[in-house]
Design a protein that fits this description.
This protein has about 190 residues and is mainly beta. The chain contains two helices and twelve strands; from the N terminus they run ββββββββββββαα. The strands form two sheets. Strands 2-12-1-11-10-7-8 form a seven-stranded mixed β-sheet, with no helix packed on it. It has a five-stranded mixed β-sheet with strand order 4-3-5-6-9, with no helix packed on it.
Amino acid sequence: MERRPTVLQVSLHHPTLGPAAFANVPPRLQHDTSPLLVGRGQDAHLRLQLPNLSRRHLSLEPYLEKGSTLLAFCLKSLSRKSCVWVNGLRLTYLEQVPLSPVTRVCFSSVQMVVRLEEGTSLKAFVCCFHLSPSPLIYRPEAEETDEWESLPQEQPPPGSGEQTPAHLGFLHGPPHTRDSPLQPSPGEGTEI
């Protein structure tokens, strides 16, 4: 009885080159359980002729998790000069992350979405490639936030005459120089 291979449904988009960027991409690629290389080099299984793409830019690597009978996959960055963004996480050279059921990847202006369909074969997997005319990812990089600004600040009720707590004085009070002594504000403790 032949086992059904795991299928990676891979959607691809390039914002400026469009489908021409993927002229050499086959609609379907069956691969053994060695790493599948993506890059512009002759040894890449998925060859893309793009500027700023390394000969070996990234790999999709199947592995067997302890106690599992299904293949799992990780994506590894192989480029020394460029980074790869995976679900908003920046990967540099030789960093890797496991694929989730839907994984969003950006590299060299390529937007790639990988959907994992589990199979029972441990000897091979299949990649099915789809070209998208429209963007797949709208925020490829992780959003940096200032958690402090998003925390609700306890403010005294308007007209109460109360001031902001002293421990926040350094954020709201006048700047101090190295030579000026720290002075407590009326009704408050020493600013730190």
